[in-house]
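User: I'm preparing a small set of examples for a lab meeting where we compare how different chains pack in three dimensions. I only have the primary sequence for this one, and I'd like the structure in token form so I can line it up with the others. Please keep the answer compact; I'll paste it straight into my notes.
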Amino acid sequence: MSLAVPARSNRVLAVLVALAGALIAAFVVAPRLLANGSGAGFRDESDLRRAFRTAFAEYWRTGTRDLPAELATVVDYWFRYHLAKAVLAAMLLAVLVALAVLLWRAFLAAGAAGRGRRVTLAVSGGAAAVLALCSLVLVLANVQGAVTPFTSLLPLLTGDDPTTVAAQVGRRLADGTRTPPLDVMIDEFARYHVAMAVLAAVTAVSLVGACAVLWRAAVWSADRRSRRVLAVFGTVSAVLALIMVVVAVANTTNASDPVPGLAALFAGGW
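Assistant: Understood. Below is the structure token output for the 270-residue chain.
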């Protein structure tokens, strides 16, 4: 009995591993292709950076709230890019959770199987769980990017080679001079943090629920190894829930007063 799991479970395991590999590859390659499907035509990040900087400079000069067509095209592309990444990351998360559950069930059922086989199952299950956690982070980050694509593009104005317009934005934020484009940036920056605050809060509630279910199952389990595994995952869920609460509170604070955070971005602090 390979990997101490039934033949049918081995087939499911192989399918899940193949799906995970395919989704990881798709996450890296597909979003740009899908986002470019509308004809935006950005070849790589440097191409996107140049287009955004040029379009933003025009927007800054107009002094209006409405995005010009060129900038709207870039923002729409970035929305589609993050949406594709969020969907693929969510699919990968579902596959990895299923894979982790299957591997840990196999570990618990291994019983008298060889020590090496149990270690392999435990390590594989732990790796799947860690990858699932990474996928969760990717889901949250990309949903946030899809909700506020304009704000998530702003770091392209700064970095190692900041634009002249970026320096002007920084000065306006420092001296308190408000313009319509700057008002839009501040509003969008606040929404950026509101989005993450909501996502983190929902995730925290879900993790608390998972923690309760896992600990209840651990208490009622008659098998000592099962109790240990369930207790470990219950504890991890509780710790992750606490982290999400901290993230939600921090983003709520930034959303309530977005100007310092936006100023830090243009000062190179984000």
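A couple of notes for your slides: Residues 1-5 have pLDDT under 50 and may be disordered. The chain has nine helices and no strands.

User: Perfect, thanks.
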